[in-house]
Design brief:
This is PH domain-containing protein. The protein is mainly alpha-helical. The chain contains three helices and no strands. The protein has two domains: 29 residues, no CATH class; 39 residues, no CATH class. The termini are far apart. The mean pLDDT is 76.
Amino acid sequence: MDKSENIFTSTEDKQLKEWSQYIQNLFNDDRTASHNINLNDGIDITKAEVEHATPVAKSGKSPGPDGIYVDVLEVFNENTR
């Protein structure tokens, strides 16, 4: 039996029911997005700082809340030299 006292006919039925409940709980999120990013906040970043940081950053990862991938910055750096 599961938490709701349902009876299962097989182990497979139990697993399917548990996964179904897990997925429903996982995506049952009624919170609203609250990403209030003001592009004018913070200090200016120089071209030299970006050129220095991109070679050591991991490819395919997003560096922060701006969502700009390192790969994009590397292409930008190559095209502006």
